């Protein structure tokens, strides 16, 4: 029967290479390849020059698409938003500004809009409209 040798601290061998510690300085330049030593300053210089505050990059203006594309609106919606052609997002903003300016939200439940005469025409004659229904009820007023 074969015996299995036991491991002891004396029988374990440790490497002669240093173990890197967290937060320790990088290895000496003698261990780094010559290509790395030359390329690093060039990359840093290029990165530093791209962040210079003297030449601010102008933001590119995106072309309007979808709900940000101006569309012609009905005369009823035009009476509230004040423009013959407007994007859907801007129409909703102006409609909510009109509602808040004329204090048309129900004081007990701010999610409900109490319609005045202009809004009744806009919302198919309804007296009260929930805020989630507003976008749906505006759909027919955007001419396609």
From TrEMBL:
Coiled coil: none annotated. Residues 46-68 are annotated as: Disordered. Residues 66-144 form the DM2 domain. It comes from the Eukaryota. Residues 46-58 have a biased composition (Low complexity). CDD domains: SWIB-MDM2_like (cd10567). PANTHER family: SWI/SNF-RELATED MATRIX-ASSOCIATED ACTIN-DEPENDENT REGULATOR OF CHROMATIN SUBFAMILY D. This is DM2 domain-containing protein. It comes from Arundo donax (Giant reed).
